[in-house]
Structure formats: C-alpha cells, structure tokens
Specification:
The protein is α/β, with parallel strands linked by helices. It has 2 domains: about 130 residues, 3-Layer(aba) Sandwich (Rossmann fold); about 140 residues, NAD(P)-binding Rossmann-like Domain (Rossmann fold). About 35% of the residues lie in helices and about 25% in strands. A 6-stranded mixed sheet has the order 2-1-3-5-6-4, sandwiched between helices. It has a 6-stranded parallel sheet with strand order 9-8-7-10-11-12, sandwiched between helices. α8 links the parallel β11 and β12. α5 crosses α6. The longest helix has 16 residues. The radius of gyration is 19 Å and the shape is globular.
Amino acid sequence: MRRFAVLGNPIEHSKSPEIHRAFAESCRHEIDYQKVLVEAGDFDRVVTEFFASGGIGLNVTAPFKGEAFAVAEVHTEDAVDAKAVNTLWRDDDGRVCGHTTDGSGLARDLEVNLGWQLAGANILFLGAGGAMRGILGPLCDRAPASIHVANRTPERAQDLVALFDGRGSLTAGSLTAIPDREWSVVINGLSSGWAGDFPDLNIPTISSSASAYDLIYSDKPTPFMTWAAARGFQQVTDGLGMLVEQAADSYHIWNGERPSTSHVLAMLRP
C-alpha cells in the first residue's frame, strides 16, 4: 500500500489524513496516510527514514516548511519563491523534490470555489509572514490590477514585495497607512486572534462587492471574519477551501490524478 504522511508540531488538529483518505476513496486508490508529530531537531531524520522505508509523499506543516525546503534536493519555482515547502516526494533518480501548493490552492479556492475575480482586482494583503510569501507569486500570476501588502512592521512588507519585483503592481506599507484604492479582495495573514480581537484597521474604500478571506480555518468565525462582516464585506470566509485545494494539488503530484474537492468540502463543512 502506498504510504503518505503529514509532519508537524503540533499535529493532532490536522485534517490532512481525513482529506487524503476521502480523495483516495473517490479515486479508488488504496493509501495509508498518517499524521506524525516531529520534535525539534528531528525533521531531517524523520524524512530520511520515511523515504528509505518506501514512503511515497509527505505533507509538511508548521513549523517545518523551511526545513522541508532545506532538505529538498530539487525545488519547483513556487518553492523557490516561497523558500518553503509543504509537499515532498522522490523523483525517478531518488532525489527528494519540494514544492509548495499553498498559493495554487488559495487561487483555486478563490476563483473556482468562491467565484471571486482576481484578474483586474485590487488585492490587499494583511501581514507579511511566511504564509504570505508562499501565496504572493501565484496571485501575481492572476494579473490583478494591484497588490498592496500592509504589515505592523512596514519594512518587512517592503522586503516581501521586493522579492517579487517585476511581477506586477506591488506596493507595501504599514497597517496604519493603507492606500485609498477600491479594494475588492482582502486576504488576512496577520497573527491569529490578537488577544481575541482584531484591530480596527482603517481601509479607506472597498468595492460594493468586496470579499474578505482569512488564511486560517476555524469551526466558527475568526476575529478577522467578524470584523470584516461588520464593516460591510459582502463575502467573508476562512481558509478551509485553501486547505482542501492545496491538498488536492499534493495528491495530484503523488498519484497522477487530481481528485474532485467539492465532496470533501461538503464533508468538512456540512
């Protein structure tokens, strides 16, 4: 039986085994997919032993995406952009390959599942952490009118934007000086919670059909989602769809078939 796993710490909350088993059932594949708690300093050993024992593919979650990039011998362009990897496998030469499906998973959730228009849109990113680096490139490829990255530390936002120089109309600044554009999509990657509350940001103008997306997923509205709904955003959602779509992209890499995702989304959010 083909073996897969997700590595992380913590890992108990992970929905990945449930998602991939549902994919396998729909594709009529037999797989074994486990979640593995990895202690600090053990990541390289766990990856080496997994592949040495015949394992096929690994997903990687926090805090090991950077270590996954380092352990990979071959990187895709998206992985190089992100300097992080959430999907590992071995090629025909036995080399460990690394890719990140976060950006493609987000873009597919926004465009296909939610029907949001990215081409020609003004997109506002809140936060400049590692998650944003992983998704910025694929969103640039959707030809938005502009992307602005706002962060508590504006220098970090500027550093992030500089990595994608030439990929579109990109600007950066602080959370207290968001430009006055007609924002149509706002994506939140700020630290979850903010002590149970979300800061009352001044976003000068939003479009009449503005949408808000939180990268984290939750069984109840996140603080950001509550804030966005109260400020007139027409569509507000969390990142569950991104989780499922990036998993489908990983499944495709490993098994040569991209599973349907609608039934998995329905299963996870009845």
